[in-house]
Design brief:
- 13% of the residues lie in helices and 22% in strands.
- By secondary structure, the protein is of the alpha/beta class.
- The protein is built from two helices and five strands; from the N terminus they run ααβββββ.
Length: 119
């Protein structure tokens, strides 16, 4: 119920946070397919959303990267620690720790990172 109908759900909170801070031309990086259960509500017709690999490819330094990195998980843990070279955590929405829902993706915390150079 929290996941489907609550305006205070983790993904809804993350979407509101991003809407208040992201510029209209900002790009969002995600590790999960941009499905409603995995990312905050983003207008995919108006926003640039990039599906990133779990492990950063070699030679990524100096390449243009999305300003925001958004992912849903039980814990604030990047899929690969090498991403921490490029992104810093800025906030999370929802309770952290193991979520014991029968539906494995329901009401998960959403973690928001920003590119370290902030551009």
């Amino acid at each position: 119920a929290l996941d489907a109908w609550s305006r205070s759900g983790s993904r809804q909170q993350a979407g509101q946070w991003l809407a208040a801070r992201a510029a209209p031309d900002d790009t969002f990086g995600v590790f999960q397919e941009p499905a409603p259960y995995a990312v905050p509500p983003l207008d995919l017709a108006q926003r640039h959303v990039v599906l990133l690999p779990q492990r950063p490819p070699a030679g990524l330094a100096g390449m243009p990267l999305p300003r925001w990195l958004v992912f849903t998980a039980d814990r604030d843990r990047l899929p690969d620690p090498l991403w921490a070279e490029f992104y810093r955590p800025v906030t999370h929405c929802g309770a952290t720790g193991l979520w014991r829902s029968r539906i494995t993706w329901a009401h998960k915390p959403v973690f928001i990172y920003e590119r370290i150079d902030g551009e």
